Automatic annotation (TrEMBL):
Its EC number is 2.3.1.9. InterPro entries: Thiolase, Thiolase-like, Thiolase_C, Thiolase_CS, Thiolase_N. It comes from Amycolatopsis balhimycina DSM 5908. This is Acetyl-CoA C-acyltransferase. PANTHER family: ACETYL-COA C-ACYLTRANSFERASE (PTHR43365:SF1), BLR7806 PROTEIN (PTHR43365). Keywords: Acyltransferase, Transferase. The keyword Lyase does not apply. CDD domains: thiolase. Pfam families: Thiolase_C (PF02803), Thiolase_N (PF00108). One of its GO terms (molecular function) is acetyl-CoA C-acetyltransferase activity.
Amino acid sequence: MPTAERNEEAYELYIGKRDGTLSGVHAADPSAHVLTALVKRTGIDPGTVDDVLWGCVTQIGDQSSNIGRFAVLAAGWPEHVPGVTINRACGSSQQAVDSAAHAAMAGQYDLVVAGGVETMSRVPLGSRRTTGQPYGPAVLARYDNFEFNQGVGAELIAERWGFTRERVDEIAAGSHAKAAAAIDAGVFDDHVVPVEVDGTDFTTDEGLRRGTSVETLARLKPSFKPGGVIHAGNASQISDGAAALLITTSERAAELGLTPIARYHGGAVSGADPITMLLGPIPATEKVLRKAGLSIADIGVFEVNEALAPVPLAWLEETGADPDRLNPLGGAIAVGHPLGGSGAILMTCLLARMRGENLRYGLQAMCEGGGTANATILELLT
């Protein structure tokens, strides 16, 4: 059986803030941009790509009718190259990577691109629900007609673990500080693709707020309950962005003269209580470590999506991971969370840290709406 490897290139766009530089751009365009960059820098013939697996959450309007297929066409790739759109909520593009690797390991694909996009400025979060209620009466009855809400779930998590307002704000301020340091050090330079929008070069993540402190965050009002701990400053930002990764087998990489830099070491998915909703990374992490035959101490760096600040805090409490290894380059609180693209974006961050520090193993986990989660382990090769 061939070994699935993540190949030489993984690219993302700089992340645009809500109503920012990318807000006037159709979702197919940033998707095409990262696909084009992938081809340019690897030298692959796009006509040899078996499939493009593309994450996208809000599949309505600009992002409807299989945006994965239209990304391929917008990039000018041959018409025979297919594309498919995947929705596992916030983990959509991480699922795209997992599924691409599984297909390569099974011998179904030799060369596949995985990634995703979300333009939340143009296709607002929750806009799919304007035409109906997604859960159905049986689901609502099972949970006593609870109104599922990630912010409420985050408040419940904070209550359960006793996280104070100051503690969750420390996570948020730290995210901005770490992201700023990483950007200033050029950590992402090899992975992020500049783009020209309306004659202006877009070359920075727009969501970053330098100088953010616990004191400045303390002025913000709670968003979900009086006296609560969750507010706009310690939650992930509404954003626009895209990312793409090339996945192949050892044999195909050798044929193409490409040097793989990381191996897909394992993946797992798990469900969790849909009321708290955001705790799935904890059992998913346990599951993927068990499958991989590794311990939490074996992992050199962790990327746990900062959907809301209590998520990585609860994950730390339950896994016992070294907090210094968690989200060392900042996260979604600082730079944004373009839903369908976030899994692939986090994976580029994970790889950047692994390469920069020569860390053998890295683990990524994403909480997801409805109470599911993906966890993936990569192994550094070069």
